[in-house]
Amino acid sequence: MQMIPVECVVRNIAAGGLVKRLGVEEGIALTPPTFELFLKNDEKGDPMINESLAETFGWATPEQLAKMKVLTFKVNHILKALFAEGDMLLVDYKLEFGVFKGEVVLGDEFSPDGCRLWDANTREKLDKDRFRQGLGGVIEAYEEVGRRLGITFPA
Ligand code: CDP
């Protein structure tokens, strides 16, 4: 698969970069959910881009971006419900896509490293923010996410 160097971020609840960038309150519901594009470029710190820049610089075509947006929201629909069954809120997440046999398909992984998950009742963080914010209990939180999804771990 030929990876497209554009990250798609959907947010259902304000957190992380959005809170920093816009100064909105962490935890507010985002209705409708937002959709953002970032360029995969470590040197530049994955800067925010838009569809016009992606087209002009050849990172993705408008058709590819349209497909990526549809698929990203489809994933939101499915995963929000899946995590809700485990009493978790899917706060935000990042997806990457690539081209395989001429088709835009989902690439990369999906894990608490690339999304934010909060306990639906206490809003306790169950994702990489535990590491980023030095909250500790990273492995325990990831295992808890797995358990709530019905995944069992070897002892
Ligand atoms: O996570 P951070 O505050 O740096 O950026 P964000 O824009 O708030 O990230 C939104 C979501 O995308 C979070 O769930 C991040 O974990 C994920 N993300 C990622 O997995 N990889 C990146 N390079 C950027 C964001």
Automatic annotation (TrEMBL):
It holds the Pfam family SAICAR_synt. InterPro entries: SAICAR_synt/ADE2_N, SAICAR_synthetase, SAICAR_synthetase_CS. PROSITE patterns: SAICAR_SYNTHETASE_2. Keywords: ATP-binding, Ligase, Nucleotide-binding, Purine biosynthesis. Pathway: Purine metabolism; IMP biosynthesis via de novo pathway; 5-amino-1-(5-phospho-D-ribosyl)imidazole-4-carboxamide from 5-amino-1-(5-phospho-D-ribosyl)imidazole-4-carboxylate: step 1/2. It comes from the Bacteria. Residues 1-148 form the SAICAR synthetase/ADE2 N-terminal domain. SUPFAM superfamilies: SAICAR synthase-like. Its EC number is 6.3.2.6. It catalyses: 5-amino-1-(5-phospho-D-ribosyl)imidazole-4-carboxylate + L-aspartate + ATP = (2S)-2-[5-amino-1-(5-phospho-beta-D-ribosyl)imidazole-4-carboxamido]succinate + ADP + phosphate + 2 H(+). This is phosphoribosylaminoimidazolesuccinocarboxamide synthase. It comes from Vreelandella olivaria.
